[in-house]
Write a structure and sequence with these properties.
- It is a single chain.
- By secondary structure, the chain is an alpha/beta fold.
- It is built from ten helices and seven strands.
- It has a seven-stranded parallel β-sheet with strand order 3-4-2-5-6-1-7, sandwiched between helices.
- The chain is globular.
- Magnesium ion binds near residues 75, 178 and 179.
- Magnesium ion (MG) binds near residues 76, 178 and 179.
Length: about 240
């Protein structure tokens, strides 16, 4: 029931403040809800990587994140876990529509993120979908607003914003820009600016990139508010 759920949420939120981030060794040390912990266990994820350790905690506190970490460092869970927790804290449900939008440069990456989300999010009740083209655009745009977590490529998303009479993302809580440097390398700077202008300003944004180029910094300035900077270097 809702009253009990509210108490559980309040207790976890209190833990966000009490926890010492440097003491985090296992995922079970993080104040994540039971559904997320079960998803992590089922997928056999036990120990967070450095980028996960550093970004999940401030993201749970609602901070914007500007993360720099190489390919293979585990950025997917670094943003998916705060997405799941953020929507869970709000008790997001089917009627609430689009709550989190994840933008990634290619279809291939979108599929990969979707697969990880399916695994770690399987105990949650959120709907999730891919918006990457290849489907009828009108059919897809009817789906987009009803889906809780949308993973998309920038060109296809902009097509929806341009071709539908209005882009209904007024409820959006969380925006993730994955592999921002690659998005920009593919020539999507103007597209990203247009997308961000179409999104509600009161939201949490997490931007991840392998490199910090000038164009990434420009995009960060446009999309983030007072972000926590996370830079993870390789250990040898
Ligand atoms: P990135 O987006 O930074 O390139 P990914 O999120 O795709 O990295 O993760 C790279 C690989 O590491 C994937 O195969 C993923 O399953 C694995 N991985 C990520 N986090 C963990 C973890 N905490 N424990 C074990 N494996 C992990
Ligand atoms: Mg990645």
């Amino acid at each position: 029931p809702w009253e009990i759920e509210k108490e559980i949420i309040a207790k976890l939120q209190q833990k966000y403040k009490d926890i010492d981030p440097s003491s985090i060794q296992k995922f079970s040390d993080l104040p994540l809800c039971r559904k997320t912990q079960q998803g992590l266990q089922a997928a056999d994820y036990k120990f967070p990587t450095d980028v996960q350790k550093n970004s999940i905690h401030p993201a749970l506190l609602g901070r914007d994140i500007l993360g720099a970490a190489k390919t293979g460092s585990g950025k997917t869970l670094a943003f998916l876990l705060p997405v799941l927790e953020g929507l869970w804290r709000l008790q997001w449900s089917q009627q609430d529509g689009l709550g989190a939008l994840i933008i990634t440069p290619t279809r291939e990456l979108a599929y990969q993120i979707f697969e990880v989300l399916r695994k770690v999010g399987k105990k949650h009740d959120f709907s999730a979908g891919l918006v990457i083209g290849g489907k009828d655009v009108t059919e897809e745009s009817q789906q987009i607003y009803r889906t809780n977590i949308v993973i998309c490529t920038p060109g296809r998303l902009l097509q929806h914003m341009d071709e539908t009479a209005y882009f209904e993302a007024t409820n959006l809580q969380i925006l993730v820009l994955d592999e921002a440097d690659r998005i920009l390398d593919l020539g999507f700077a103007a597209t990203m600016n247009a997308i961000i202008q179409n999104l509600p300003p009161t939201r949490q944004t997490m931007l991840f990139s392998a490199t910090q180029t000038k164009s990434v910094k420009d995009l960060a300035r446009l999309s983030l508010k007072n972000p926590v900077y996370i830079s993870v270097h390789e250990h040898h």
